[in-house]
Design goal:
Distance between the termini: 54 Å
Number of strands: 14
CATH superfamily of the largest domain: Jelly Rolls
Number of helices: 10
Largest sheet: 6 strands, antiparallel
Number of domains: 2
Order of helices and strands: HHHHEEEEEEHEEHHHEEEEEEHH
CATH topology of the largest domain: Jelly Rolls
Strand content: 25-35%
Mean pLDDT: 80
Helix content: 25-40%
Shape: globular
Radius of gyration: 23 Å
CATH architecture of the largest domain: Sandwich
Length: 311
């Protein structure tokens, strides 16, 4: 066989192996597809040409728009969109009435829409052993589900079922990809990296961390602001996203926190009193999650057990 053809066959074989490995990775945890190691300039250019996009716009009453705006504002996916982008998303969403016990998403299927809950409760389940199913997350108003398949081009990670009569809003893949996807991926990846540094959370799998990352809330603080007070019962956990903080015990500085550092993590497990006060050093931005939300998303006893085994 000529040398050029032999190289071509080897290259095609390597690409086929990459595709198989990519599929296996998706089954374990949703991850972005890896880029090819070598592509032609012509192909690269074609992939990066942004196609003309006209988002759908479904008529809505002012009352519907206000309800939808209030619901979307609770979700991390849409929290950093500007006004123009936000209005496009509102226009592109469709209202869906759901009966109790109805299955909205089936694990393993291809996904073409995400859903935002306005009213109702939904269970996200995965197979447990040979026969049963295990609920890994329960979604409430303001929560988003079905976004993983759109963010990572992966099959549905879980089956989602309505626990009661509910109202949800759906958004198509194309609008999501053009308006929301890059912003959401960057934010989730950044927050996931912060969470992975916390010893208590190191044993969490990528799916659990992604759900926790989605639940983080942004809190802006001014210079000198007291974030936690020594002796008070704690109910929040914080990560420094921008700026710096200092911990003070009995009035003396004992520890400084920079970007990526965290404090108050014990509040995720029990409502113990704060061992020190924490103050902002200059204006900054914190990520926070309250203990109630954390316990709703995760089995804390199981997490602590895994954390002890991990360390």
């Amino acid at each position: 066989m000529p040398e050029d053809e032999e190289k071509k066959d080897d290259s095609e074989s390597d690409e086929e192996e990459d595709d198989v490995l990519d599929d296996v990775e998706f089954e374990e945890a949703p991850q972005p597809r890896r880029g090819r190691q070598s592509v032609s300039a012509e192909a690269y250019g074609e992939w990066n040409v942004k196609k003309a996009f006209t988002p759908p716009n479904y008529p809505k009453s002012d009352e519907q728009k206000e309800r939808l705006k209030a619901t979307l504002s609770k979700s991390f996916l849409f929290s950093r969109l500007d006004d123009a982008e936000f209005n496009i998303i509102i226009g592109a969403m469709q209202e869906v009435a759901v009966e109790g016990s109805k299955e909205i998403i089936t694990k393993g299927d291809d996904g073409d829409r995400l859903f935002v809950i306005e009213a109702g409760v939904f269970d996200c389940s995965i197979p447990d052993d040979a026969d049963g199913w295990k609920v890994v997350k329960t979604c409430h108003p303001g929560d988003v589900f079905g976004e993983l398949a759109l963010l990572y081009n992966a099959p549905r990670a879980a089956t989602v079922t309505a626990k009661e009569a509910s109202t949800i809003w759906s958004l198509d893949r194309e609008t999501f990809s053009n308006i929301v996807k890059e912003n959401a991926q960057n934010k989730r990846n950044r927050y996931d990296a912060f969470l992975a540094k916390v010893p208590l959370l190191a044993s969490m799998d990528p799916y659990e961390r992604s759900q926790l990352a989605d639940a983080l809330r942004i809190e802006k603080v001014e210079d000198g602001a007291t974030i936690v007070t020594q002796g008070e019962v704690g109910d929040k956990f914080y990560i420094v996203e921008e700026g710096a903080c200092v911990a003070q015990k009995d009035g003396a500085n004992v520890l400084e926190y920079a970007v990526g550092d965290y404090f108050g993590e014990l509040a995720l497990i029990n409502n113990s009193t704060r061992a020190a006060s924490v103050l902002a050093q200059g204006p900054g931005k914190l990520l926070s999650i309250d203990s109630v939300t954390f316990k709703r998303l995760l089995d804390v006893k199981e997490l602590v057990k895994r954390s002890e085994a991990y360390t």
